[in-house]
Specification:
Elements: E1 12-14, H1 28-40, H2 45-56, H3 71-97, E2 107-111, E3 114-117, E4 120-123, E5 129-131, E6 136-140, H4 142-151, H5 156-175, H6 177-186, H7 190-213, H8 223-233, H9 236-244, H10 257-270
Parallel strand pairs: 1-2, 2-6
Antiparallel strand pairs: 3-4, 5-6
Helix pairs in contact: 1-2, 1-9, 3-5, 5-7, 5-8, 6-7, 7-10, 8-10
C-alpha cells in the first residue's frame, strides 16, 4: 500500500503499556477465538477451559510495570492510524452521499496484553475486535505478528483488511444491522446463533472489500492477493482443521475460507453496499 505522507486518524487511544484492573467475562466470539488459538498452539480442551478462565474468570489481570514499543510496533501503530483515516474518508463519503447523516468515526484503541472495554475485558488472545457498546476497535498490534508467524498471512494490505473488517462492524452498528442481529441471536439456540454470527462476519468482510474498492489508488499489484490469503487462513474451517484435523460446521461463527474470500472479493469488485445483504440469503447461497 502507498501510504507515505497519508494523514493519520486522530480518533485513536494509545493504551499500550497501561495496566488494567478487574476482569470481565468473555463473549461467545472471544471464547471461540481463545479456543481456536489454544488448540492451534497444541493445547487440549483442558487448556482451552484454563485459558478462557484466565481471560474472563475471577481475579485481577496481570499488569505491566514497563513498556517500550519496538520500532516495528511503532511503524504498525502509524500504519493502523493511516488505514483508519482511509476508512473514515470512504465511509464519511458513503454516509453523506446516501443521506445517512454524518458518519460517526469509531475510535481505535491500541493496547498491549489486556484492556477494559464496554464489552468486557479485551485480551490479546481474542484478536482484534469491535465493541458496539463504546464504538471502539481494539487491537493488540502483536496480532499482526501472530498472523505472519502462525497463519502465514503477511503484508500491509492483509493487516489493513483486518482493521477494515472491524470498521465494517462499526458500519453495521451505525446502520442498525448489528443491533438487530444481536437481538435475534439472543432468542436463538447455539447453532442458529452461530449461523447468524457467520452472516454478520461475512458482511463485515464485504464492507472491507467495498472500502478497498474506493482506495484503489493507494493499492499495489500484490495487495489483493495479500488480503485474499488472509481471508482464507482465518476461515473457520481452515483454522479448525489446522488445530484439530477436522472442522465442525455447526460451530462456525465467521464463515469458511471460501465464503470469506468470496465476500471480500465481491465488495472489492462491486463497491456497492446494497449487494452485501448476507442476511437475506440461505446457507447455500452464502
Amino acid at each position: 500500500m502507498k501510504l507515505d505522507g497519508r494523514r493519520e486518524s486522530t480518533h485513536v487511544e494509545d493504551r499500550r503499556g497501561m495496566s488494567t484492573g478487574g476482569k470481565a467475562g468473555l463473549g461467545l466470539g472471544g471464547i471461540a477465538l481463545v479456543a481456536i488459538i489454544t488448540l492451534m498452539m497444541g493445547g487440549n480442551l483442558g487448556d482451552v477451559f484454563q485459558n478462557v478462565q484466565n481471560a474472563g474468570g475471577i481475579g485481577g489481570l496481570s499488569t505491566e510495570t514497563s513498556y517500550e514499543p519496538t520500532a516495528e510496533n511503532e511503524e504498525l501503530a502509524t500504519f493502523s492510524k493511516q488505514v483508519l483515516a482511509l476508512t473514515e474518508d470512504v465511509w464519511s463519503a458513503y454516509f453523506r452521499q446516501n443521506g445517512l447523516g454524518d458518519y460517526q468515526n469509531p475510535t481505535l484503541v491500541l493496547y498491549s496484553g489486556a484492556t477494559a472495554t464496554a464489552c468486557g475485558t479485551g485480551q490479546a488472545a481474542m484478536g482484534p475486535f469491535y465493541c458496539s457498546g463504546d464504538q471502539k476497535l481494539y487491537i493488540d498490534l502483536s496480532f499482526f505478528a501472530t498472523m505472519k508467524q502462525q497463519l502465514g498471512a503477511d503484508g500491509d494490505f492483509a493487516y489493513a483488511y483486518v482493521i477494515a473488517h472491524e470498521v465494517g462492524h462499526h458500519v453495521q452498528n451505525l446502520l442498525g444491522t448489528l443491533g438487530q442481529a444481536h437481538q435475534q441471536m439472543a432468542r436463538m439456540n447455539k447453532t442458529d446463533s452461530n449461523r447468524m454470527s457467520v452472516r454478520i462476519e461475512l458482511q463485515a468482510d464485504f464492507y472491507a472489500g467495498v472500502w478497498a474498492h474506493y482506495i484503489d489508488t493507494v493499492l499495489d499489484d500484490d495487495d489483493l492477493m495479500e488480503a485474499i490469503k488472509c481471508a482464507q487462513v482465518i476461515g473457520d474451517d481452515y483454522l479448525q482443521k489446522k488445530a484439530q484435523g477436522y472442522a465442525v460446521e455447526e460451530s462456525f461463527t465467521h464463515g469458511t475460507a471460501a465464503q470469506r474470500m468470496r465476500w471480500l472479493k465481491k465488495g472489492m469488485t462491486t463497491g456497492d453496499v446494497s449487494q452485501g445483504n448476507t442476511f437475506q440469503l440461505s446457507d447455500n447461497q452464502l
